[in-house]
Design a protein that fits this description.
- This protein folds into two domains: 79 residues; 60 residues, OB fold (Dihydrolipoamide Acetyltransferase, E2P), CATH 2.40.50.140.
- The protein is rod-shaped.
- Helix 1 runs antiparallel to helix 2 and helix 2 runs antiparallel to helix 3.
- It is built from three helices and seven strands.
- With 149 residues, the protein is an alpha+beta fold.
- It starts with a strand and ends with a strand.
- The strands form two sheets. It has a five-stranded mixed beta barrel with strand order 3-4-5-7-6. A two-stranded antiparallel sheet has the order 1-2.
Length: 149
C-alpha cells in the first residue's frame, strides 16, 4: 500500500479512477485520443490488485499504452478516415466545359459552363488562352475558380 502525506492510498482505485477519466475523455472528444491510456490504466489496475510495486504499475501502464497505440492506431485511422466525401464541386473535375467568355490569365478573364453551372475559369498554363465557344477540360479547382486545359 502506498502512502501520500501519511495517508494510505489504494493504488488499484487510483488507476481505476484514471481509467474512467481516460474513457470519459474518449467519449467527449471526437476521434480516438485516450483509449490506449485507458487500456494502460486497466493493466496498472491489475498490477496494483496483485500488490505490484508502484514503479512496476507505472511500467505496465506505459508499456500497455504504447503497445496498444502502436498496434491499433494505424488500423483505426485507416477505417475512420477512409470515408472521404467528395463535394459537388469535385464532380466537375475531368468533365468537358464550354468556354462562354474568353479565358486569358494575364487579363484575369474567363468563364465556362459545365453541368448547367457557370464558373470563373483560368487556364492551367498562363501562356494558353481559350476563345469563347471552345471546349476545355476541368483539371482542378482553386478557390472559386475552375482550372482548365
Amino acid at each position: 500500500m502506498a502512502f501520500v502525506l501519511g495517508v494510505p492510498v489504494n493504488m488499484a482505485m487510483v488507476w481505476l479512477v484514471a481509467m474512467v477519466v481516460f474513457l470519459v475523455i474518449e467519449a467527449l472528444v471526437p476521434g480516438l485520443v485516450s483509449l490506449w491510456f485507458a487500456l494502460g490504466a486497466l493493466a496498472a489496475v491489475l498490477a496494483a490488485a496483485l500488490n505490484a510495486p508502484i514503479w512496476l504499475q507505472l511500467v505496465w501502464f506505459f508499456v500497455v499504452s504504447v503497445a496498444a497505440l502502436w498496434l491499433t492506431r494505424p488500423l483505426v485511422k485507416k477505417f475512420i478516415n477512409s470515408k472521404v466525401q467528395p463535394t459537388n464541386a469535385d464532380a466537375v473535375i475531368g468533365r468537358e466545359c464550354l468556354v462562354i467568355e474568353d479565358i486569358d490569365n494575364i487579363r484575369a478573364t474567363g468563364r465556362v459552363k459545365v453541368g448547367g453551372m457557370e464558373w470563373t475559369a483560368r487556364s492551367e498554363k498562363d501562356d494558353v488562352k481559350f476563345s469563347s465557344g471552345a471546349v476545355v477540360t476541368a483539371v482542378a479547382i482553386e478557390g472559386v475558380k475552375l482550372i482548365v486545359k
